[in-house]
């Protein structure tokens, strides 16, 4: 079964054709990151205008590339995301499904993030169900218990900022460009991750929820107090130390909550998804944390392009819902 996926939830316009939920036949993506970077973050109205332009241009090119393939359904990232941007994809997909007389499958792209492992050819063996999903992105931070592709429960989520949002805000505090995650990871390589005294959020809290707002505020307070004291020659190292310390504490917060969730569920598999999952530092910390705590857990992290918003995971995940349409 060949399903076309369409993704416009944030700053990526993306098309993909995926067979049987795992085999990518074609995929094309246009990014708006450079335009939003000039404004230090995503501007919903600008994103919608760009999607309107890009979806027509990219769509024509994409459908030319798959003209020899049968299309059995259209899947679209729906409802969850920046509303003006999401509506562009929904409208396009609805018209397309009607024109081709095939089912239209709306997809929650947050849940679909875990499907990156299934469309990534690097994973010959896919995770067996059940497993714990960790979805970490600019808009969401969730722990999800998956009993099957379509049976899942959100067992933990952020009480305030998402982790990716916190990284963007801290990057802005430090004068680093958008998107903040890759920039903080880059400058952190030169920093001391224990240089700044930051507390791990909710460390003694028994819930599976996350909180990053207080950590972000602690960074802001520290920078406003200490940065003016720094000699110009050493400001680069100051920024590196703050970035490294924030990154360590933010990821340690995630690792601790993952540990709690694994104990509560008894699961032995963890699947990552979302833009922040592309951080090598996060993966390294989870591996080292599991080793230190003697936690037996298989860790599945897809290629970076299947962590961020893309149509391949939308089309791939939609295969599980096709019978319901």
Folded structure, characterized:
This protein is an alpha/beta fold. It has 2 domains: 2-120 and 307-324, Nucleotidyltransferase, domain 5 (2-Layer Sandwich); 131-301, Nucleotidyltransferase, domain 5 (2-Layer Sandwich). The protein contains 11 helices and 10 strands. It has helices at 33-37, 44-65, 83-100, 109-112, 116-119, 163-173, 180-188, 213-226, 235-265, 280-292, 311-318; strands at residues 2-7, 12-19, 23-31, 73-77, 104-107, 131-136, 141-146, 152-157, 269-273, 298-300. A hairpin with a 3-residue loop joins strand 2 and strand 3. The longest helix has 31 residues, at 235-265. The model has no long low-confidence stretch (mean pLDDT 93).
Topology:
Elements: E1 2-7, E2 12-19, E3 23-31, H1 33-37, H2 44-65, E4 73-77, H3 83-100, E5 104-107, H4 109-112, H5 116-119, E6 131-136, E7 141-146, E8 152-157, H6 163-173, H7 180-188, H8 213-226, H9 235-265, E9 269-273, H10 280-292, E10 298-300, H11 311-318
Parallel strand pairs: 1-4, 4-5, 6-9, 9-10
Antiparallel strand pairs: 1-2, 2-3, 6-7, 7-8
Helix pairs in contact: 2-3, 6-7, 6-8, 6-9, 7-9, 8-9, 9-10
| Ends apart, CA distance between termini | 14 Å
The CATH C-level name of the largest domain is Alpha Beta
Mean pLDDT: 93
Specify the CATH homologous superfamily of the largest domain.
ATPase, nucleotide binding domain
Order of H and E elements: EEEHHEHEHHEEEHHHHEHEH
Which features would summarize this protein structure in a list?
325 residues, five-stranded mixed beta sheet, 43% helix, alpha/beta, Nucleotidyltransferase, domain 5, 18% strand, 2 domains, 10 strands, globular
